[in-house]
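Possible regression after last week's pipeline update?

I re-ran a chain I had predicted before the update to compare outputs. Posting the input and the new output here so someone can diff against the archived version. Not blocking, just want to make sure nothing changed silently.
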Amino acid sequence: QAQLVESGGGLVQAGGSLRLSCTMTRRTPGTMAWFRQAPGKEREFVAAISTSQDTQTYYADSVKGRFTISRDNAKNALYLEMNNLKPSDTADYYCAAANSIYFSADFVTDKNTYYYWGQGTQVTVSS
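New output (post-update):
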């Protein structure tokens, strides 16, 4: 069973950047994603990436153009580059991995798609 460990969170001023990493104990076969959960709110989708050679990505509208998801299969790693951060980006960020390689908007944005979850890394953006 794969384990996922996130890192890279921290405190940053609005307009700044952070790069989150997710290390997997072994390569997961399927689609991977980042979700986030702000205090008092439900966990929400941020970005997803396919496992296929023709890499597909999908982003929440709130982060499109500012965040970039990528993966390095050789290193069993997933990344989230976050630029132009806003206070509304403050949340705990979680990486997730599915057992399926299927990729569609409805599929990748659904929390129930993902079987493996990390423990989360905190991102705080000050105004």
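Follow-up from reviewer: compared with the archived run. The radius of gyration is 13 Å. Marking as no regression found.
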